[in-house]
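Notes, Module 5: Reading structure tokens.

Key idea: the token line is not a picture. It is a compressed description, and you learn to read it the same way you learned to read a sequence, by spotting repeated patterns. We will look at two proteins. The first is printed below with its tokens.
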Amino acid sequence: MIRFLPRWVAVLGVMSAIVSITPVAASAEPTGATVTWAVQPADARGPDGRRWIEHTLDPGAVVTEHLAVRNFGDSPVVFALQAADGYLTDKGRFNMLTSGQESVDGGTWIMLPETVTVGAKQTKVVPFTITVPPDATPGDHPAGVAATVTSTGGTVAVQSRVGFRVMLRASGTVTATIGVEDLIVRYERSWNPFTAGDVHLTFTARNNGNVAVTGDGTVRVDEMVGSGGRNASTEVPELMPGDGRQVAARVGGVWGLGRLTTTVEVTPAVVSGDPAGAQMRPTTTTVTVWAVPWPHLVITVLIGTVILGWLTSTRRRRRHLARLLDQARAEGRAEGRTSVITAD
């Protein structure tokens, strides 16, 4: 399933704010008035309704694109334009490298003018080119473009950017696979020994393919005691090639009476572009842990102790009763012999 940021978040949201000690070279110098602006994909006539720009291109290909910078303020503003490699933050939001970080991938494919001046309440369309290197590897090379305004105060410069993602894919074999790494399984027993507990697990989902993917995961727990197994599902958020993110899941209804075999299977799904012809490679990982049923063992020992005590007490009572009977029989025989002698 394709998941993207809502339109206004992607277009109007501030992508980053950078605080640096030295001034930024390509900087706008707005007046004290608040600057409000938006950056959108466009054609030569203006914004064209796209949320982002997306292309699948052959190595060596060159394509011309456009972006529109909209100034909602009451004064003209000089915006610095920037293209950089794109990535996902720890919270799964798309961002691009800051001006102080060097791009080495898709961001280097994009050539933009350094600045653009946009009048008050106006929109300016800016053309830019995307050039795919002849040796580009197949798969996704995410990037972003942004318009920047820098506010200065003494020796501190605060750079604010608004932009959108540019999803670039070099043609070739598309591989979608998510590896399961560092699978950790923990059994949590219920406070009630007569109620099943839960299996908690965490793992690192790693995009080992060459395109952005999400994933659907299935978790199965099989027990040594009992029939069948317990299942649960989990989702892997969007991952760029090479990205990894921790995923958690819980499987309920597990008694934990000994060996627990936990199997995680993740099926990838291509986020953008045409998934037809993609090599989809599900991943399966299995881990076995032992859950010692201490409450059940304690209850078993207690029950066994009670039964053993009852049996021991019963045997003692029976032996005591048998001794009493033997004694009574012996006394009866002795009394019988005494009675016979007295009669003679």
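Here is the second protein, with the sequence above and the tokens below, as before.
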Amino acid sequence: MTGGNKSLWPERIAYLAGLAVMGVALLFLLGAGGVVVASVVGVLCVGMVAGGRSGVRAVRAGRWERPGTWLSLGVASVSTGVVGFAVSYLIGIFSGGLDVEETCVHGHGVRYDDAFREAHAEEFNRWFPLHSKCNEDFDLVPAWVNPAIVFFALLGAIGVVCLAAAVVTALRTRRDR
């Protein structure tokens, strides 16, 4: 650490300690299943932040030929894609609530058409695109959810391509030695 950064050291320790306390509290509240969920979320968040920061630095420096650049960009893209996909999909899945009729009528003040829902029942049970319609005119799934699902799936696929580019670049660098 350089002399100019020494004043930030106590703040960094306090920040990390605060994160640790919040993590322990979250694990205590969620129980045994929370350990797995918190671990996965933690790894994905570290991948998004660390991969994104180092990838952006490498791109700014013009280090496209290094495997680490592609690895960082791949990790950041895959992590962001997985988190974004999961959040968007869960918002879409749970947008109707437990009782769609109650959500339509009381939550949104919209007419619930039972005959329409019955006639289109298989549409509401599909994995994609997500729909939970009250009637022919009103969908409980927000309009941004399906495009976001596609975007984050593509971002994850781009991340996989970046990871493949990291492997190819590493093999090419090793061969050229």
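Summary for the second protein:
- The chain has seven helices and no strands.
- Residues 28 and 53 are 31 Å apart (CA to CA).
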